[in-house]
Amino acid sequence: MEHTATPITLPAWVQCPVTIEGLYAQQGTEVAKNSPFLRYKYWEYRDDPTQEVIGEAIPEYLKKKVRVELIGNFEFPVAGKVVRLHVRKGQEIGYAGELLAEVLEACAHAVQFGGLCALCGISLEEEKTYSGYSYDDRAPISMSHDTAGLKISLDEAERVENTSTKRLLDAKKLILVVDLDQTVIHATVDPTVGEWMNDKTNPNHSALEGVQAFSLEEHPVLPPLYAGPKPPPIKSWYYVKLRPGLGEFLERVSKIYELHIYTMATRTYAANVAKIIDPEGKFFGDRILSRDESGSMTHKSLERLFPVDTSLVVVIDDRGDVWQWCDNLIKVVPYDFFVGIGDINSSFLPKLNLLIGPSKRRKSIEELEEKIHKDDKTEETSEERGEEEGEEEVVRDHERAASLEAQQQERPLAKLQKDLTSIVAKEHPDDPVEESLLSDDDGELDNLGNTLYKVHECFYEQYSGHQPGPEIATVMPAMKRDVLKGLTFLFLGLLPLNKNPETVDIVIWARSFGAQVVMEPYDYVTHVICKNPGTFKVRYSRSELPDCQIVNPDWLFECFSKWERANERKYLIFEERFVKLSEAEITKYKTSLQRKAPQPEVAKEETYETVDNMDWDDLNKEVEDFLSSDNDDEEDADDEVPESEANGSVKRTHESEEEEGDLKRPKIESVSEDDMDALEKELMQGFEDMESEDE
C-alpha cells in the first residue's frame, strides 16, 4: 500500500533556539528507530558558581546568572529511509515544531486493531517516546460500527469513504442512519406488559399482539468508591413494539438507501433489537453503532460514522437536540405506544416539551397524558446539572438504571390503566366497559417513506454523474423551506413557561420548514396554532385578523410528516359561543401591540432564522408592569399554559400556583362569562395605566 513519508519535527520539549552542530544521517540513508539523527547546541542561564556565599544563603533574586552553552542529541523516532532533509549543519532553528526531515517507513500503520498494526502485524502498544511520537496518532479515526478498537488514518479514511461513495453513487443509493427508540420501535421494562400478554381477558391483550421480548443480564451500576463484593447481574425483560409498517418501510427504503443503526442504547440492547427488526440481517448487517462505541452519551455525530464525507447521509430520529438540529436530519414524530413511558434509553437527556406529536384519537387517552405531564416532577438530568466530565458516564448510568428500576417496581402502565378506568367511568357511568390503555393508530412510517423517496429523487436530479456532487445538507433544507414559506405562526397555550421560545422544539421544527414564528397577534400572522379557542389573544385574532386561520397543532404535524402544506379545513377551531371583544378593548390592545411590533421579515433563501427580533427582557418588564392584579395574571396564563379542553368552552380550570420566575399564579376554580368580561376590562385598564405612565 502506497503511503506518504512521515514528517520528523523538532519536539516541543527542546529549549529553543538551537543550532545544528552535526548530522548523523544523509538523504537516502536507511535509519533504525532510536538511531542518532542530529546533534544541536543550545544555551540557558545558570547560577554563577564563582559567586561567594558568606553566611546565610543568597536570595534567588540576588544570585548572579551566567550563560551556559549545552549540547543535546535527537534520535529518529521511526525507522525507514530518509527521503528528504530540511536542515543543514550550522543552521539555527528558532521554534519547536520545525520540519527536520521526512522518513518513508516500510509500513505507516494506518490501520490498527487491538494494539496491533493490521497491515504488518507488529505490536504498537507503546507509550509515547520522549520525541512525542505515538503510533496512536497514526490512526485516530474509528471507522467500524461495532468496535472502537479498529482505527485508521485520515488518508485511509478518505480512501475508504471515496470508494464507498463511488459505489453508492454508481448504484444510485444514499445512506440512511436510523435511530431505534421511539423512531422505529418503542420499548419498556414494565412487567405489566408480560402479564397482559398472557391474559386474554385483559382489554390490552389484542393491542400487544406482535410485541416481542428479550432479556439482558445487566450488572448493577456501583458508586465510584464502592469497595464491597461485586453483586450478581440482574436479569431485565424488555418488551419491544415495532412501529406499524416497519417491515414494509425497511424493505422499501433499502432499495435506494444503505441502512445504518445509530442509538444511545447499549451494544447488547441494540444487537437484540436489531435481531427483532432485521432477523436475517439483510437491511443493517453489522452496521450498528451504539453508545458503547460512539464516545458520547448525550450527542450524536455524523463524523463518528463518516469522518470524511457526509454528502450522502440522511438521518431519521425522534430527537433533534441530540443532533444539534443538523441539516442532514429528518425529525420524526415520536412513536409513543406504551403510554407515558417515553424513551427508556434517554433518561439522562433533557426532558422534551409536552407538544411533541399529534393528539391522541381517543379523548380519554389525551386527557390521561396531560395528567402525566402535570404530575411529572422528575429531577434534573445530569446534563442540566452540569456534571464534571469525569463523573458524567457514571452519573448517567445511574440515572438510566434508576429509571429502569422505577419502571419495574412501580409498574406505571398498571397505574395508568386504573386511572383510565376511572376517567371512562366518570364519562360513561351507565356503561362500565373497561377501555384499553394501549392502541396503535400510528401512520408515520408511510409518510416518512414517501419523504425519503422525494429526497432521493431530488438529490439524483441534481447529480450530474461527476464528483463533487450535491450534498444532502443543502438539498434537504432547500426542500423543507418551501413547505411553509411565507407563513407566520403564533403559538398560544403550547409553549412552556420560563423557556426561551427560540430553544423550543416545535419552534425550531416550524422554522426549519420556512415558517416565521412570532409571540403576539400581529396583523401579518397567517396561522394561530392552539388548542383552546377561548383565550383573549385567540378571540382578538379571530376578530381582527380575518385572513388568519386558527388551527389545532395536528395540522402542523401533518405538514411536518408529509413535507407539504396540509389543508387547514379539518383542523380549524371554532368556539361554540363566540364572545366578541368591544371596540375599546381592541383599540387598547392594538396600541400595546404597536409599541412592540417588529417589522415583518421576508423569509430568506439561505436561512430560516426569522423569529421576531423582540427583546425578551423588555417584554417581560412590560408584562410585569401591566399585570398588576391577580386576575390579569390569570388571563395571560390562559395564553401560556396548555389547556386540557379544546371544545370552545370559555370555562377552564388551573392548577394551583404555577410559577413563572418569581411570579405565582393563584388558583382559580372556575371563570364564568361575566367574570371573563371583568377580567378583560381589568386587562384593558392595565393598558390605560401603561399609557398614562408614558404620558
UniProtKB/TrEMBL annotation:
Its main location: nucleus. Residues 368-384 have a biased composition (Basic and acidic residues). Residues 479-573 form the BRCT domain. InterPro entries: BRCT_dom, BRCT_dom_sf, Fcp1, FCP1_dom, FCP1_euk, HAD-like_sf, HAD_sf. GO terms for cellular component: cytosol; nucleus. It catalyses: O-phospho-L-seryl-[protein] + H2O = L-seryl-[protein] + phosphate; O-phospho-L-threonyl-[protein] + H2O = L-threonyl-[protein] + phosphate. Residues 368-398, 592-615, 627-695 are annotated as: Disordered. Residues 169-355 form the FCP1 homology domain. Its EC number is 3.1.3.16. CDD domains: HAD_FCP1-like. One of its GO terms (molecular function) is RNA polymerase II CTD heptapeptide repeat phosphatase activity. Residues 627-643 have a biased composition (Acidic residues). It is found in: Nucleus. Pfam families: BRCT (PF00533), NIF (PF03031). Keywords: Hydrolase, Nucleus. The keyword Hydrolase applies. It comes from the Eukaryota. PANTHER family: RNA POLYMERASE II CTD PHOSPHATASE, RNA POLYMERASE II SUBUNIT A C-TERMINAL DOMAIN PHOSPHATASE. This promotes the activity of RNA polymerase II. This is RNA polymerase II subunit A C-terminal domain phosphatase. It comes from Babjeviella inositovora NRRL Y-12698.
